[in-house]
């Protein structure tokens, strides 16, 4: 019922490693016995004041919660709600606010974050109107915790900042370090590891000054886990040893020792130091066995199984992994069940039981997709790629390894970026694509060198030097054999010459002269070829260096462009059923999408969604996309122009002013084709304006689509009069599907005759699959596009957006 602070943080070559966080909660819990609850009930019966009864009803409710029995949470709600009712009857606003906080806390414990936020905000409204107090700190800190669990991280940040301001004003060091620690956890969850360490170190500093040693250990554990996620093994180990030193000096807590030693074992396992890994695993297992903590025992046994699997002792490894999986399934913990499924799959993969391995990988991936566990999915996708590579299905292996690599890059999981780059290099080599194999091998070397410590680098250098030395010895041996063969051949030839000389001196002189003349010609030709080769190599190096500089600049521009695109998570919060198929032709794109929601978070205001195709593609198109994104933000967000047709009119005027201020007669037609929709989910209506690009709507259960015809003019510079854009309005129903797109998909050449795909085929695909989930529709569009394009080059940027009402 209460939230356990456990987290997976990385995967080394084969096995998943579970790192543990402490069960030391942000709000310290006190477990109440039944006798204590009975005592509170007796006090309630004897209390004469109503305000005192409200306080006791809250205390009884909280006491029931901490018993952690099957019905304890519902009983806790009953008493707390009775307290709220009484507080309202006596018009005691303070007691009502305190009770709302307790009820909000219980909702949070139940996992109902929305109700928790509503109740805690009610309490915050009351205490914010009063002078700063510890109640205000507690309420805003709790609000931050709930927002964090609800993945509403900006709101969590605001709540923690408010709590921290109050704590500073009251010089409350205990709550200050707790808030810093909570912020560190939040940044850790969002993969902002440097920020997580920064806040955790603040918690360490305050806790050391105030002698809060458990808080010091807890913060060091976060620091260690973030370093471990980034494969900074020595820094992670240092943090854990610091925590161990504090525990041994001041606390002597076996539970703390158990958590820290298993995390140290994980660090050594990541460094492939199996001896030290097993040493610390055994220490932690002994502690958890003594304390009868079965879940922790299962986690450590699973990690020990990984060590045996890496060592090739598969029989023992299987016993550990299956036992760990069974315990997790009994506990009903899908997060760790998925990890255990993956570990078992790795075992069956290594023992070539591929059918079993595939089944367990799919179990894990299903659980991780349901939880949107991107980090876990990175490892599982990598495992499926390894499985297909072992089966010889390199095309399938490439598909999964690319997904794993891209997700690892997105969440900055550097250890897995390194491993996946190496895997991709090997697969492309098997597929006879040397350019891509070499590209990913360079990525592997670059990431590897950036994350490995000096000791590991020294070992690698020694191994490489040893390998080079062996290669050199082999080359020298071959050269000696070659020289010996040449010498033998020369001796044989000299014998022939001597024999020929005996036949006739003249003939020998003739052939000798001919040989010398040819030798001089060959030597001169070789000298010319060598000089030409050196010049070509020199020019090649110059071109490659220039190309690298240009490519690096374009890639950096691509990261900037993608940072300006609206995130999938933001769009997903407004429209749960959606897909975005975005495939730039080059590194940067002239196509882009943009979204913005007015009103409070959720679907209570108007949701704006734009699908745009700027003039050109590549670098020119990217420049235009940045300009148009800026103008959309300026028109809708800053100027608050809300009608789509007015927005496109404004942007057109702005583009003309920016690119052709003197209205010179020019052949330039800079601008964009665009479809801009404004969806009111409350009234189920949509207003839209279209410039050259139509919008398709498939009504729920319909057998045909509705096409919203566009205005045949761009948002930008054109010949003739500038007519205003047309406003279209559509009534929506639940289940209606809306499709927006640029011309890249329909204009792609391919198929058996190398012709354009065209909009008619795209309409057929949309109609045939409109009833499917949006994620499946995206997969079908991606697969169809790839099959149609075949071996031809992509001719334009591609963008297709689908949403379901």
Structure explained in plain terms:
The chain is of the alpha+beta class and 805 residues long. It contains 28 helices and 15 strands. The strands form 4 sheets. Strands 4, 5, 6, 7, 10 and 11 form a 6-stranded antiparallel sheet that branches. Strands 3-15-12-8-9 form a 5-stranded antiparallel sheet, sandwiched between helices. The chain is globular and about 140 Å long. The model is unreliable at 1-18, 23-31 and 452-471 (pLDDT under 50).
Biggest sheet features: 6 strands, antiparallel
Helix count?
28
Average pLDDT figure: 85
What percent of residues are in strands? 5-15%
Distance between the termini: 35 Å
- What is the total tally of β strands? 15
**Percent range of helical residues:** 55-70%
> Which segments are poorly predicted (pLDDT under 50) over 5 or more consecutive residues?
1-18, 23-31, 452-471
- Shape descriptor reads globular
Q: Which class of secondary structure composition applies to the elements?
A: alpha+beta
Q: Which radius of gyration do the C-alpha atoms yield?
A: 34 Å
List keywords for this structure.
805 residues, alpha+beta, six-stranded antiparallel β-sheet, five-stranded antiparallel β-sheet, 15 strands, 10% strand, disordered N terminus
